[in-house]
Write a structure and sequence with these properties.
Layout: H1 18-37, H2 42-72, H3 82-89, H4 92-107, H5 114-132, H6 140-150, H7 154-170, H8 172-175, E1 184-186, E2 213-217, E3 220-225, E4 229-231, H9 234-244
Parallel strand pairs: 1-4
Antiparallel strand pairs: 2-3
Helix pairs in contact: 2-3, 2-4, 2-5
């Protein structure tokens, strides 16, 4: 079997915080420029900008909440409190942004802001439409990052299933009576699994069958397992999924 462990570039690394750093840098430059050019109306400008960016998502969350309350309160939330549905539909940070904007408006002196309020109202009307049409939807990278952070990728589920439903049950059995504790799990990077190891590497040859390891599992008594060297079987599922899609 070829050793590919040193080729780290073949394995995706977790995404870093470069986008956040760029966003913080741009925000610092813009706010500094506004503070220098218009120091008197700085907080009003900040409040208007925050309000434009947060009221639209809040209204879209209200629309989502109406759908959840009318059609999914029992099946998805088991009739739990309304607060859980609110937090599921409207982000807590979004609500905090609206509150911050209102607070800044309250702390600053009132001024004739007819044009700015027109922009706020227009943003409230356009954001839900653009969000529903997918114009403001998440990019593939953002969706992938969310799945990686919350560990909800298909690969995460298969890995947990392999660990809890197989390795935890099978590994202790051969180690109870045998002196050797070596057990090899093969993880090919392309997720394609050969049914015969000797087809992949001529240095490997089949010797004999292993003693049966029998486990009562999932309603089946005496379920037979063999293990010393084997592929991580969920990889075959991932490979077939990639071929089908």
């Amino acid at each position: 079997i070829q050793q590919l462990g040193e080729e780290d570039c073949l394995v995706p690394q977790p995404r870093g915080s470069l986008p956040k750093a760029c966003a913080i840098g741009l925000t610092t430059v813009v706010t500094t420029a506004i503070l220098v050019l218009e120091p008197k109306g700085f907080f009003r400008h900040v409040a208007a900008a925050i309000l434009i960016l947060t009221v639209g998502p809040s209204l879209h969350g209200v629309f989502l909440l109406s759908e959840e309350c009318l059609h999914h309160a029992i099946t998805r939330y088991r009739g739990r409190r309304l607060g859980q549905m609110v937090t599921a539909c409207v982000g807590v940070c979004t609500l905090l942004g609206v509150e911050l904007a209102v607070l800044l408006f309250g702390l600053t002196e009132p001024q004739p802001w007819r044009d700015q309020w027109s922009m706020v109202i227009l943003a409230c009307g356009l954001y839900p439409l653009l969000k529903t049409l997918g114009v403001l939807g998440l990019s593939e990278v953002e969706v992938s990052e969310i799945c990686e952070k919350k560990k909800v990728n298909v690969a995460h589920g298969l890995a947990w299933s392999f660990h809890l439903g197989y390795l935890n049950l099978v590994l202790p059995c051969p180690f109870e009576t045998r002196g050797s504790r070596k057990f090899l799990i093969l993880l090919p990077l392309n997720a394609n699994i050969a049914h015969k190891l000797e087809d992949e590497d001529t240095n490997i040859c089949f010797h004999d069958n292993l003693p049966n390891t029998e486990i009562d599992r999932a309603g089946i008594r005496g379920l037979v397992h063999h293990c010393v060297v084997e592929y991580a079987t969920p990889l075959l599922t991932l490979y077939k999924m990639s071929q089908e899609s």
